[in-house]
């Protein structure tokens, strides 16, 4: 009888831990699918202007036009089409930034944690220097000096967001480097690169996966902030941050031009954070054994 009571409770706990993973995965997967299929599912060209059709209201407001489900912006461009292409920009920046920063941070962290000594001192010095640099101010300065472009935004964010990867990779590598399976690999005659690639990295991957989701969300938010300030993705590319910036002049009379991309940005970042929490629980990021 007690078992019949305990098992449903355990299942509820297990479902509660995985609910975030499922919801986050659905949100991120849906946005990613929309981004990939953007050229085929957009009802209009997101760059074509029609000044005779400026600030057409979305479908839930009186006077909406059937051809523009989410209305149009201040230049008459279809808002749904720009929102869909904005998902492509956000996902591209998030993924490429995580790849860039992950490669830098993971390499430094694993080398410092595995070899220790002077190598670890150099890695710690690099991490300390990076933590002393204000990300937003440096990004604003670099983009302001060199000019805004999609490639530059990705490079700047990737070169500024590697510290968390390095810290996590270093600490987890120091935990696993003296475990039995690493000692067995040494005894079997494996080379140092082979041990790093086959024994260390697979056993710290769960930690790095959680960090990747956090950094992806942060990169998307930073890009939106830079674009809002006019120093991110250059127009006419439909970045969600740029859409918010372009709509701020109409916020009192047409608040939906800010509300729509703002809600889309919130949902995407929320979904990524849920996915990260779910991965942490599923992969057991708190256990390196």
TrEMBL record:
Main localization category: membrane
Location in or out of the cell: Cell membrane
GO cellular component: plasma membrane
Protein species of origin: Roseicella aerolata
Cell membrane is among the record's keywords: yes
Keyword Transport: yes
The organism's place on the tree of life at top rank: Bacteria
One of the GO biological process terms: transmembrane transport
Domain ABC transmembrane type-1: 87-276
Membrane topology: Multi-pass membrane protein
UniProt record similarity statement: Belongs to the binding-protein-dependent transport system permease family.
UniProt keyword annotations, A-Z: Cell membrane, Membrane, Transmembrane, Transmembrane helix, Transport
InterPro entries associated with the record: BP-dependent_transpt_permease, MetI-like, MetI-like_sf, OppC_N
Signal peptide: none
Pfam families: BPD_transp_1, OppC_N
Membrane spanning residue stretches: 21-41, 89-115, 135-161, 208-233, 253-275
Identification of the protein by name: ABC transporter permease
């Amino acid at each position: 009888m007690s078992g019949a009571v305990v098992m449903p409770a355990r299942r509820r706990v297990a479902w509660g831990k995985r609910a975030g993973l499922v919801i986050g995965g659905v949100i991120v997967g849906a946005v990613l699918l929309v981004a990939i299929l953007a050229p085929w599912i957009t009802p209009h060209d997101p760059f074509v202007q029609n000044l005779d059709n400026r600030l057409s209201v979305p479908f839930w407001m009186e006077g909406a036009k059937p051809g523009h489900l989410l209305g149009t912006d201040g230049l008459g461009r279809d808002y749904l089409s720009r929102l869909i292409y904005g998902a492509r920009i956000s996902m591209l920046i998030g993924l490429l930034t995580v790849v860039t920063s992950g490669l830098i941070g993971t390499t430094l962290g694993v080398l410092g944690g595995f070899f220790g000594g002077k190598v670890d001192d150099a890695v710690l010095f690099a991490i300390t220097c990076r933590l002393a640099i204000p990300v937003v101010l440096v990004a604003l300065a670099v983009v302001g000096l060199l000019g805004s472009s999609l490639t530059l935004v990705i490079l700047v964010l990737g070169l500024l967001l590697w510290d968390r990867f390095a810290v996590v990779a270093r600490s987890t590598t120091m935990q696993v480097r003296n475990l039995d399976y690493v000692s067995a690999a040494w005894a079997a005659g494996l080379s140092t690169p082979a041990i790093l690639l086959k024994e260390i990295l697979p056993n710290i991957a769960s930690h790095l996966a959680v960090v990747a989701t956090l950094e992806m969300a942060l990169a998307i938010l930073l890009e939106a902030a830079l674009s809002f300030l006019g120093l991110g993705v250059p127009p006419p590319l439909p970045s969600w941050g740029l859409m918010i910036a372009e709509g701020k002049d109409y916020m009192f009379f047409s608040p939906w031009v800010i509300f729509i991309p703002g809600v889309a940005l919130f949902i995407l970042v929320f979904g990524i954070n849920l996915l990260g929490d779910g991965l942490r629980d599923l992969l057991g990021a708190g256990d390196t054994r």
